[in-house]
Amino acid sequence: MPSGASLFTGWLVLKRAPALLALVAFSAFGQTTHDVVIEGYQFVPAELTIRSGDTVKWSNHEKRTSHSVLFPAEGGQESERLFPDESWQRQFNQPGRYLYHCGPHPEMKGVIVVE
Ligand SMILES: [Cu+2]
């Protein structure tokens, strides 16, 4: 990889896209938050890929059903029960596949892939 070429490309990005630069800086500090909606007894999206340091926020959009987010591989670590319009968030700092399901409804499954 010729370093001159990548330097040149980087310079172009810096010059042309301050908004993109801001986005990259935002990600570099691990402050990107991704949304997962809980609706119709489903996690949407069921599979989500994020970067190490990112945060995932689960929001319950049901009319009257409460849910939770439970990670069986981590000793059953579970969020508090989320009632309609409540949310819960977790930051992921280690790469891996984090399978989870809803505590009261184990058939509701999801996975967070941390790269
Ligand atoms: Cu549930």
TrEMBL record:
Pfam families: Cupredoxin_1. SUPFAM superfamilies: Cupredoxins. Binds 1 copper ion per subunit. One of its GO terms (cellular component) is periplasmic space. Its cofactor is Cu cation. The keyword Transport applies. Residues 1-30 form the signal peptide. Keywords: Copper, Electron transport, Metal-binding, Periplasm, Signal, Transport. Its main location: periplasm. One of its GO terms (molecular function) is copper ion binding. It is found in: Periplasm. PANTHER family: BLL1555 PROTEIN (PTHR36507). This is Plastocyanin. It comes from Dechloromonas denitrificans. The lineage of its organism: Bacteria, Pseudomonadati, Pseudomonadota, Betaproteobacteria, Rhodocyclales.
